[in-house]
Amino acid sequence: MLPAAKTSRFSLADVMPNCLDALQGRTGRLGLAGVSHAIVLLCDGLGRTALEAHRGHARTLAARLERDPAISAGFPTTTAAALPTLTTGQPPGRHGMVGYRTLDPDRGAVVAQLTLEGVDPAGWQRLPTLFETGGVRSVAIGSPRHVESAFTRAVLRGAEYRGGVTTADRVALALRELRAPGPALIYLYVAELDVEGHAHGVDSERWVAALEGLDAAVADLASALGPRQGMLVTADHGMVDVPVEAQRLIAPELLAGVRFVAGEPRCLQLHVEPGTDAGELAARWRAHEGSRAFVATRDEAIDAGWFGEVDPVVHPRIGDVLVAAKKRYAYYADPADTARRMIGQHGSLTPDELQVPLLRFGAWA
Question: Is 0.90 topped by the overall pTM?
Answer without folding.
Answer: yes
